[in-house]
Amino acid sequence: MGSVTRKPLIAGNWKMNLDHLQAVAFVQKLHWTLKDAAHETDSVEVAVFPPFTDIRTVQTLMDADKIPFALGAQDVSAKDSGAYTGEVSGAFLKKLDVHYVIIGHSERREYHAESDEIVAGKVQAALRHGLVPVICVGETLEQREESGPTAVSVAQLRAALEGVASDADIVVAYEPVWAIGTGQVASPEQAQEVCAALRSVVADALGDAAAERTRILYGGSVKSGNIASFMREPDVDGALVGGASLLADEFAAIIRYQKHVGV
Ligand code: PGA
Predict the structure, then answer these.
(1) Alpha-carbon separation of residue 164 from 79, 126, 223, 257, 261 (angstroms)
(2) Which of 151, 108, 111 shows the shortest CA–CA distance to 133?
(3) Which of 14, 28, 123, 144 has the fewest CB atoms within 10 Å of its CB?
(4) CA gap 143, 175 in Å, rounded
(5) Across-strand partners of 48?
(6) Which residues is 132 bridged to in the sheet?
(7) Helix, strand, coil tally for the chain in percent (to 5)
(8) Nearest to 137 by CA among 182, 173, 90, 98
(9) Using CA atoms, how far apart are residues 199 and 172, in angstroms rounded to an integer?
């Protein structure tokens, strides 16, 4: 698995699922499932990314019950404040103890026409407010066939890291579009190939120390049955999980991948 210096990160992207009441039940269930399994919370970092409307409630619950998950948001405005109807400032997220923010998810690139330039602006906004951007990159099947496995992700990450300081705390997520929500998972070798190329991009843009420190996740149809095979790859430091992060037992099993045979 990934370098010993990088703590694995298992991140649950809820997308537009679970209202704030369902979120309470879910987070409690996940917490108790892990506790019952005597999961060692230090071995893997767990993060949940609820919809904006759940964040305050989830933060209050995790604080009150000392639940050791990191809190993330699914998007952030490139602007800090002002007349931007419907946008959410990084400053507001920071006040709610939000630590991570997903930026450039393929669903936002596709349905909200987020360009590399918009993504780069959001990365800057996250860093300005002390949030850790989880920068998502990945190719469609057509792009993979046209330009090979790494070209699109490499170009997207280069653009997102424009102007980022070498000591910035970032996370990168390689999510091949053809593997998201399709059940058509990338092979561990395919994930490793792109994640290694992305680590080289981080090295070029931010230096070797940043490349060594930065966690690179794989995302796309991750399940309890395949997570261990990804985590064995040297440049895969965790997973960004969509559908399977909505089932407490399944997500707990993903988090406990080290218990699976052969890891
Ligand atoms: P999936 O989604 O696990 O449902 O494929 C991953 C993601 O979009 O982050």
Answers:
(1) 17, 11, 33, 33, 40
(2) 108
(3) 28
(4) 13
(5) 12, 71
(6) 100
(7) 45, 15, 40
(8) 173
(9) 9
Task: Round to whole Å and give the CA distance between 8 and 241.
Answer: 13
60: Cβ contacts below 8 Å, ≥ 6 apart: none
Residue 3's pLDDT is what?
A: 56
Structure-block tokens of residue 29: 């269930």
Specify burial of residue 162 (Cβ count, 10 A radius: 0-12, 13-18, 19+): middle
Q: Which two tokens stand for residue 163?
A: 């102007």
Does the beta carbon of 219 lie inside 6 Å of ligand 1?
yes
- Identify whether the C-beta of residue 249 lies closer than 8 Å to the C-beta of residue 26: no
* Amino acid letter, 242: G
pLDDT in tens, 205-231: 999 999 999 999 999 999 999 999 999
Provide the pairing of β-strand 171-174 with 9-13.
unpaired
Q: Please tell me which residue in 139, 175, 193, 233 is annotated as part of the active site.
A: 175
CA distance 20 to 164: 34
Mind listing the pLDDT tens digit for each residue in 165-183? 999 999 999 999 999 888 8
pLDDT (0 to 100) of residue 88: 98
Record the pTM: 0.96
Catalytic residue list contains 105: yes
Residues of the chain with pLDDT under 50: 1, 261-263
Please work out whether the CB of residue 177 comes within 6 Å of at least one atom of ligand 1: no
Walk me through the domains of the chain, giving residue ranges and CATH numbers: 9-261 (3.20.20.70)
Ligand 1 centroid to residue 191 C-alpha, Å: 14
pLDDT at 53 (0 to 100): 98
The confidence score (pLDDT) of residue 238 equals 98
Whether 53 and 19 have beta carbons less than 8 Å apart is answered as: yes
